[in-house]
Amino acid sequence: MTLENSLRGTGDLGAMLAACWAVKQLDAEQNIVHIENVKARDFQACQPFQLAGRPSIDQLGDFVMHQEPGVCGSLMDEQEPEPKGGATSVMRETRSANIALLRQWLDADPTLTSPAIVKMFAEEGIKVVEGTVRRYRSDLSK
Questions:
Q1: CA 61 to CA 128: how far, in whole Å?
Q2: How far is CA 70 from its chain centroid?
């Protein structure tokens, strides 16, 4: 967590502040929130910490300390990694299989055109377009 990625808008907002605490909910069911100081102008801020709201808000009427300062790490250490974008493993495996099939066909006949290859894939029950075939060929030449 940084001041820049905690505040939206102009950097002037962060410049005006004497202190800024960033808050991110980590678990909606238990309402666990991670709190980290991202700007402390005239004081030494405590280390990051976490509070839990459920079930304590219903039972006690207040949050309870989930992880104390000094025990809790930074947000990057405490938060579950978010899934990265890109193709799923099934999509990557399918692509690799298609490229291997194309390699076999081109080894047998290097003069195959993209439209002919699209038809060959269709005969195998695989739907691809010419642009995909060109990308497969490009990957084979690397």
A1: 59
A2: 27
The amino acid at residue 17 is: L
In which residue are the tokens 């790490």 written? 73
Q: Are strands 19-27 and 32-40 parallel, antiparallel or unpaired?
A: antiparallel
As a whole-number percent, the residues of the chain with pLDDT over 90 amount to 61
The model's pTM is: 0.55
Distance CA 117, CA 115 (A): 5
Tokens of 30: 């238990």
Q: Which two tokens stand for residue 60?
A: 């006690």
Q: What is the pLDDT of residues 54-92, one digit of tens each?
A: 999 989 999 999 999 988 888 877 877 666 777 778 888
Tokens describing residue 21: 């605490």
Question: Distance of CA 24 to CAs 20, 33, 34, 36, Å?
Answer: 13, 5, 5, 9
Model confidence pLDDT, tens digit, residues 5-29: 888 777 788 888 899 999 999 989 9
Angle of the 114-123 helix axis to the 89-108 helix axis, nearest 10: 120
Per-domain boundaries in the chain: 3-78, 89-141
Q: Does domain 89-141 have CATH number 1.10.150?
A: no
